[in-house]
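We close this part of the discussion by returning to an individual protein. In the encoding step, the backbone of a single protein was reduced to a row of integers, each denoting a local shape. The sequence in question and its structure tokens are set out directly beneath this paragraph.
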Amino acid sequence: MRVLAAALVGTLLAAPPLAAEEVKPVHGIAMHGDVKYGPDFTHFDYVNPDAPKGGTLRLGTQGTFDTVNPYTLRGVSAAGLGGLFDTLTVSSMDEAFSRYGLIAESMEMPADRSWVAYTIRPEARFHDGSQVTVDDVIFSFDILKTKGHPRFRAYYQSVIKAEKVGPRKIKFTFEDGENRELPLIVGELPVLSKAYWAGKDFEKTTLEPPLGSGPYRLEAVDPGRSVRYRRDDDYWAKDLPVARGRDNFDRIIYDYYRDATVALEAFKAGEFDFRAENSAKNWSTAYDIAAVEDGDLILEKIPHKMSTGMQSFAFNTRREFFKDPKVRQALAYAFDFETTNANLFYGQYTRTKSYFSNSELASSGLPTGAELAILETYRGRVPDEVFTAVYEPPATEGKGRIRANLKTAFMLLKEAGWEIRDRKLVNVETGAAMVFEILIVQPTWEKIALPLVQNLKRLGIEAEIRRVDTSQYQTRQDQFDFDMLVAVWGQSLSPGNEQRDFWSTESAGINGSRNFVGIADPVVDELIDMVIAAPDRQSLIDRTRALDRVLLWGHYVIPQWHIPYVRLVFWNKFDRPKQLTMRGTSIDTWWVDPDKAAALKARGKTN
């Protein structure tokens, strides 16, 4: 026996070691499956690689700004700053979630995606001519995670460290556990200059043009009024496949307007060039003008296949009177979407019934198969309706009569411990009346929220619409200093780490997070982790639908509406690629047609 044991030991010692996993550099990474574009691709399919450069794109925006650092919580940052800063990788618009090298020329990762390494292009340069280095990447990661906006801490919380492993190579190591998205997430990292920020207070608001490496430079700043960018003729990446056919305007100017009506009239007068119209009424009535009839001003609906996410009246559950889900459910019966859609929106919108609306990620019907199996593990910890009922927001006939809805609301409020005293809804135990504020920033929302306020009054609830300026709104939102507001959570076709910032217990306590509602539910936390760890597309769909269903039955919001297209209005001075993508179109692939622009100017249509 000892001889046999010795022989076995000898055999084991003599055996060659297990081969280490071979990790090869690649040019792109897909969330699931393979990337669409091979290593020798020359440009994305949805661009014109020979698009002419030149001209000016003038845009209008509302509010104000007091900083040109877009990466901190403090201050309101100027529009368009993303064009100053390059990232390690860029996404493509015709894939659910894939990233291709920009500052990074290649990337490496093992099959379990426990780490990723990026090799920096030797030609990558900041605008002052200095080389982009691994030290800059490490600095950027560290400063954003420690002093940047709180969303970066949530986004990168599973990244253990960033370390230099070669002259041009940086390695990011991740926490144990499945998270296929992390290699792509760190690829989204904007790279900042370590030398430029040395000795500067990163968290302080500033109007000093920051040093970037992107296709545009900050040319001029008029605080609170306008910001102007100039295309960098010497942009280091202009001939890379991921950059060809993009960023074609010589100048991009953002003019600020404090009032939506003034901005609209300025646009129709030719003061700026391009507008994504978010008002159904404006789309239907505001453009009945000669410029449209003459073909000088173009209205176009651009379809897309992206999730439209969730737009809603959102409850702040940190407030005592919104802690009870039955109260939140009751108040949803006071919103008459059908009448609002008919009278204000010309019937253009569809009621939102999912946090992942307009996509295959949205839950529907009753749970079955893998989705049901996931939810079964939480039976007793989630509302019974998750298993027994199809979520439908309260509906009306669309004629302004909601008596039946209010009756249901009264019943739910009574079950939750509220009753009418002296025409006011009060808590049975405390005697406190239900009084709250709906915080808005745009006057457009007043006419939308007013019918809700009137219906709440019929329930004995005193709700007040409070409109504040952009700075106040941003501050109060960041500090969760509101009772109810209009919240929008955009969603991609590949949800992941950002869900922590939206719904997790940790983010509920972090000022500046997008967990406006204040959700702090261990089940939601676990479902978020499952979504992040999804090993393939089908499991991502099943897990996201389960999360969606639990969020819906938590009654955290009063869902509003969506449309499966964007409404664009623009002066007829542009041309663009013919091919649309699942995301529609992007202005950064458009260009100015010199002949069209000259003709418009000659007719006095634009400035």
Notes: The chain has two domains: 22-265, 310-493+556-561. Confidence is low (pLDDT under 50) at residues 1-19. The longest helix spans residues 537-552.
